[in-house]
Amino acid sequence: MIEKSLLEALIQFRKERDWEQFHNPKDIAISLSIEAAELLEWFQWRNQDEVREMLASDKREQLEDEIADVAVYLSYLCHDLNIDLNQVVKNKIAKNAAKYPKDRVKGCADKYNEYE
């Protein structure tokens, strides 16, 4: 999902700071979860109108930073575990297509075990 040259820049950034020693899969996954929670916090207690207003304000950059943090940690995790993010997303789409056949779930938000 992230461009190869950008991933290489991320890996170089980490290497120049000698941060690989701290970046084991468990701690990266924890950091990913923390950053995802910070992303969620941006939306907490806000209705759709408030979110639209914030997106049109200087607060948008805060949201973009949180999204970037999530992408960075996910990129590190995939790199370090030798996971091709594009391929696993393709695999998941195929699994979800089988779980959620469009003729049975279109327009329905039920979980796969609830629509049967």
Q: Roughly how many Å apart are the termini?
A: 33 Å
CATH architecture: Orthogonal Bundle
Question: Total helix count?
Answer: 6
Name the beta content range. Answer: under 5%
Taking all Cα atoms into account, the compactness measure Rg is 18 Å
Order of helices and strands: HHHHHH
Helix content: 55-70%
Q: Average pLDDT across residues?
A: 95
> Sheet with the most strands?
none
Name the CATH class: Mainly Alpha
Break the fold down into its secondary structure elements and pairings.
Elements: H1 4-16, H2 25-43, H3 48-55, H4 60-80, H5 85-99, H6 102-105
Helix pairs in contact: 2-4
Task: Give keywords.
single chain; 116 residues; mainly alpha; Helix Hairpins; 6 helices; 69% helix; globular
Overall description:
The chain is mainly alpha-helical and 116 residues long. It has a single domain, classed as MazG-like (Helix Hairpins, Orthogonal Bundle). The chain is 69% helix and 0% strand. It contains six helices and no strands. The longest helix is centred in the middle third of the chain and has 21 residues, at 60-80. 4% of the residues are buried.
Short account of what is shown:
It is built from six helices and no strands. The chain has 116 residues and is an all-alpha fold.
